[in-house]
Specification:
- The protein is α/β, with parallel strands linked by helices.
- It has an 8-stranded mixed β-sheet with strand order 1-2-4-3-5-6-7-8, sandwiched between helices.
- It starts with 20 loop residues before the first strand and ends with a helix.
- Strand 5, helix 4 and strand 6 form a beta-alpha-beta unit.
- The chain has one domain: Alpha/Beta hydrolase fold, catalytic domain (Rossmann fold, 3-Layer(aba) Sandwich).
């Protein structure tokens, strides 16, 4: 983190180390900080890491306007990777984000999550609403997740079985590069993290933050995401035509302008 891009909320000196961590319930959560301006947390999807936001070209543009806080979910990236399913019981991932904000002494931040990250974002809006100023939620709905059911019988010891199940779950085919990235994960940790999450649909009307909800137009969860958005008083929904679940993350040149426009509107 260069001196020319110091965060405006004045990070304590102790937090300027190269690979900082916050701890929640004994699990270390790795985060990264870059940019300047109002803080925004970026949370990746299942089987990804904070590096994917860089790879897909989101971070540099956002860092011109915001202090960007990138988080590796437990079981992912450089965060701790328990193999015990109990370490991932909902809503512990929500409070991993709270732990990072507490570590940074950030009272409130915007939150952008994709897929699993968006499900955690809905959770933040319900369980820790005072810690977020706005939400960008992509590729997911608040109707709950059956990922645990989808991964039943998968323990991470058979990589091909894991990839087959993940592809069927997301409706995405993986090219050679994507397969290589996926196989670099601790698949036993990811299998433990693959747990059903309850519906938060009954709480959507209580969310009092500006929300931008989006999916690819070819995402199988598009209709449920749009339905979730209609129940949030200050939500906007966009479906990006012809993009599938993976494409609505990878095609940042399409998604990022709309997200930045939303962030600019809530700052004025």
């Amino acid at each position: 983190m260069g001196k020319s891009r110091l965060c405006q909320f004045r990070l304590p000196h102790a937090l300027s180390r190269t690979v900082p961590f916050a701890t929640n319930q004994g699990v270390r959560i790795r985060y990264e900080i870059t940019g300047r301006g109002p803080p925004i947390v970026l949370h990746h999807g299942f089987s990804q890491s904070s590096k994917d936001w860089h790879r897909a070209a989101y971070v540099d543009e956002l860092a011109d306007l915001h202090t960007v806080i990138l988080v590796d979910a437990r079981g992912h990236g450089e965060s701790d990777k328990p193999h015990d399913k109990s370490a991932y019981n909902w809503p512990v991932q929500v409070f991993d984000i709270v732990a990072v904000l507490d570590e940074l002494k950030v009272r409130k931040a915007a939150f952008w999550g994709y897929s699993m990250g968006a499900e955690i974002g809905f959770g933040i809006a319900v369980y820790a609403p005072h810690r977020t100023s706005a939400l960008i939620l992509g590729g997911a709905s608040a109707h709950g997740s059956d990922i645990g059911t989808a991964f039943r019988g998968i323990d991470g010891t058979d990589p091909e079985a894991f990839l087959e199940r993940l592809g069927a779950r997301t409706g995405t085919s993986f090219d050679v590069n994507a397969r290589t990235r996926l196989l670099q994960n601790d698949l036993r940790a990811l299998s433990a993290a693959a747990q059903d999450r309850p519906s938060l649909e009954h709480m959507l009307s209580t969310i009092d933050k500006p929300c931008f909800v989006y999916t690819g137009g070819a995402d199988k969860d598009m209709a449920r995401a749009r339905e979730s958005a209609t129940q949030i008083p200050q939500a906007t929904f966009v479906a990006f035509a012809d993009l599938d679940h993976g494409g609505a993350f990878e095609r940042s040149e399409i998604v990022l302008p709309e997200a930045v426009r939303f962030l600019e509107q809530i700052r004025t």
